[in-house]
Write a structure and sequence with these properties.
Largest sheet: 6 strands, mixed
Number of strands: 20
Strand content: 25-35%
Strand order of the largest sheet: 6-7-8-3-9-10
Radius of gyration: 24 Å
Order of helices and strands: EEEHEEEHHHEHEHEEHHEEEEEEEEEE
CATH topology of the largest domain: Rossmann fold
Structural class: alpha+beta
CATH superfamily of the largest domain: P-loop containing nucleotide triphosphate hydrolases
Helix content: 10-25%
């Protein structure tokens, strides 16, 4: 039996559904990210699990116990808020100690647990400092230590990295995953940053308009999106409208100008209107070979590890990402040809608003 189970959990405010029929199973020790834009229901899901809001309908179980209507203080979960919510008048050690004191843990035991936790988050040398004397990354680790020291069955993280600068944020992604793996705590994180979710999660729940639209491992989510929204939100993509053409020998999509793209179209009927998703890094520049798509570079952008080109083609403007190998980049306004491997095109229904997908 799964460790945490959500069955048809919904939250309505009048006629507005902030969360609609959320069903999700989470295994013990798993790291799950709830990913989506503002207003998609991810924070509402976290608040429902924490007990910070009452759900309109549905059921939640934790380790076989029904927690649907339990108050926050009886769920025993660890929560790290976006603002960290540290006590400014307390030292690092005192902040971490707070939850243990509320549980009336004996002092000698508290001191031992605090020392172990501060060592885990690499703050043992800063135990006597106050939050104002710490960097953003250090304050975040104090908040994580304070949440973990009580040994919660589930750790809930509400955009814990959003207040950090870009470089520190990237560093702390992997630090957070290291800590989680070391402790083994089941973790659910809310984020709107797809790179963050993909890099450290076991599975990602993509949410849109209050619903879970796809629940998958990061690689599968990126390579096999179920909807146009997911393909565009999780990374960059080129969306090409077309119509499926099925024959005994092949399954193609016919695009503008008669261009054909080989696809796996098993889920679609012959003649169906479809959208082809092509990731920018799957496109490459080639010679004027048969089947190559002609184009003209409109703009280029240097991103450090790669070049991003915007190329005008008969199919519309396409984005092409090329690794920066140190060679001279292609010039703007240059005439080019594009190609891609046969198995990289992904197919979704045009403008698909998927029903909830649970797992």
């Amino acid at each position: 039996m799964s460790f945490l189970i959500l069955e048809g959990v919904s939250k309505y405010y009048g006629g507005f559904g902030a969360l609609i029929d959320m069903s999700l199973t989470v295994e013990r020790g798993e790291f799950i990210s709830l990913l989506g834009p503002s207003g998609c229901g991810k924070t509402t899901t976290l608040q429902a699990i924490a007990g910070l809001i009452d759900v309109t309908r549905g059921r939640m179980q934790l380790d076989g116990r029904d927690i649907t209507h339990l108050p926050v203080n009886q769920r025993g979960l660890g929560i790290v808020f976006q603002s960290y919510a540290l006590f400014p008048h307390m030292t690092v050690a005192q902040n971490v100690s707070f939850g243990l004191e509320m549980r009336k843990v004996p002092k000698h035991q508290r001191d031992e647990q605090i020392a172990q936790m501060l060592k885990l988050v690499h703050l043992d040398a800063l135990a006597s400092r106050y939050p104002r004397e710490l960097s953003g990354g250090q304050r975040q680790r104090v908040a994580i230590a304070r949440a973990l020291v009580i040994a919660p069955p589930v750790l809930l993280l509400d955009e814990p990295l959003s207040n950090l600068d870009a470089k520190l944020r990237e560093e702390m992604q992997f630090e957070l995953r290291r800590i989680q793996r070391k402790v083994g705590t089941t973790t659910i994180m809310v984020t709107h940053d797809q790179a963050e979710a993909l890099s450290i999660s076991d599975r990602v729940v993509v949410m849109e308009a209050g619903r879970a639209t796809q629940v998958d491992a990061p690689y599968r989510l990126y390579e096999h999106p179920k909807t146009e929204f997911i393909s565009g939100f999780v990374g960059k993509t080129n969306l090409l409208p077309g119509r499926l053409s099925r024959s005994a020998a092949a399954c193609d999509v016919v695009l503008a100008q008669g261009q054909r793209v080989a696809v796996d179209g098993a889920a679609f009927a012959d003649g169906a209107a479809v959208t082809v998703c092509l990731r920018p890094e799957k496109l490459f520049f080639t010679g004027a070979a048969q089947g190559a798509l002609r184009g003209r570079i409109e703009e280029r952008f240097f991103l450090g590890s790669q070049w991003l080109y915007r190329v005008a083609t008969p199919l519309g403007e396409l984005e092409v990402s090329s690794a920066n190998d140190g060679s001279v980049p292609l010039e703007e306004h240059a005439d080019v040809h594009l190609a891609w491997a046969l198995d990289v095109a992904r197919l979704v229904a045009p403008g698909l608003a998927a029903a909830a997908v649970s797992t």
